[in-house]
Specification:
47% of the residues lie in helices and 19% in strands. With 247 residues, it is α+β, with helices and mostly antiparallel strands. A 5-stranded antiparallel β-sheet has the order 1-2-3-5-4, covered by helices on one side. A 3-stranded antiparallel β-sheet has the order 6-8-9. Strand 8 and strand 9 form a beta hairpin. The termini are far apart. The model has no long low-confidence stretch (mean pLDDT 94).
Length: 247
């Protein structure tokens, strides 16, 4: 029996036995859907634990991606359920992200190209856009696998403790610290600023990365998200993009 497990204006996700069915709204861009499936398929070729795509179909006139259903709880749910294990779970989160960022998937789109386009599309004044474009262009060019939405809701822990990473729609190749800056912002957007600060310090300590270097990415990442900000996010993101010299 098919069971709805997630719903948003532009997509619905169902469980159908051992399959997960991700159904997109009829107005959703076909190119974006196929690009998401292609990103996911390319990441499957690494040794990361990700659910496998089984097929891409049209279900009642709507495009759908069919994947393996992974039984388990999200890392976010576990952190809420077991607050005494916060440090343990945060360490797991950082270690997983470092593993992802250690991979190379050369056929993925370039992170810098995507961010340049999103900054151009953001509702910011010309001077701010110019400063952000200039800063982005000056940042080192790397080719690490970047998830693009790496947060505890996108990690599923199975009964035997195996972590699976889901939702590769925004995967690109680029600079690791850009992906870290995005995860940091996502903690803030989830209303968990203290956990965000704790995460950033832990990641930088484990990876021997200067916090100031990650911070230089924050206005860029905030501006790139501003182009398609969710309801209630715009004011917060605009505040971070205004501080172009945030350090």
């Amino acid at each position: 029996m098919t069971q709805e497990i997630f719903s948003r204006a532009d997509k619905k996700i169902y469980r159908d036995g051992d399959k997960l069915v991700k159904v997109f709204d009829a107005n959703f861009s076909k190119a974006d859907i196929l690009n998401e499936a292609l990103n996911h398929a390319r990441v499957e070729e690494t040794d990361l634990n990700v659910p496998k795509i089984r097929s891409i179909e049209v279900v009642k006139g709507k495009w759908a991606i069919i994947l393996d259903y992974i039984e388990g709880e999200t890392l976010d749910a576990l952190m809420v359920k077991h607050p005494e294990k916060e440090d343990e779970y945060l360490n797991m989160f950082v270690d997983l992200q470092r593993t992802v960022l250690s991979k190379k998937v050369p056929m993925l789109n370039k992170l810098k190209d995507k961010m340049q386009a999103k900054i151009s599309a953001a509702s910011l004044d010309a001077t701010t856009r110019y400063e952000l474009h200039t800063r982005l262009d000056s940042m080192p060019k790397h080719v690490h696998l970047c998830h693009g939405d790496f947060n505890p809701t996108n990690i599923i822990i199975t009964a035997d403790g195996t972590p699976y990473i889901i939702d590769w729609a925004h995967a690109t190749q680029g600079n690791s610290s850009a992906d870290v800056a995005r995860s940091y912002l996502l903690f803030y957007l989830a209303g968990k600023p203290e956990l965000g600060e704790k995460y950033l310090k832990l990641y930088c300590k484990k990876s021997d990365t200067a916090i100031q270097y990650v911070q230089r990415w924050i206005p860029i990442v905030a501006a790139s998200r501003l182009a398609k900000a969710k309801e209630g996010e715009e004011e917060f993101l605009r505040k971070w993009t205004d501080v172009v010299d945030y350090e």
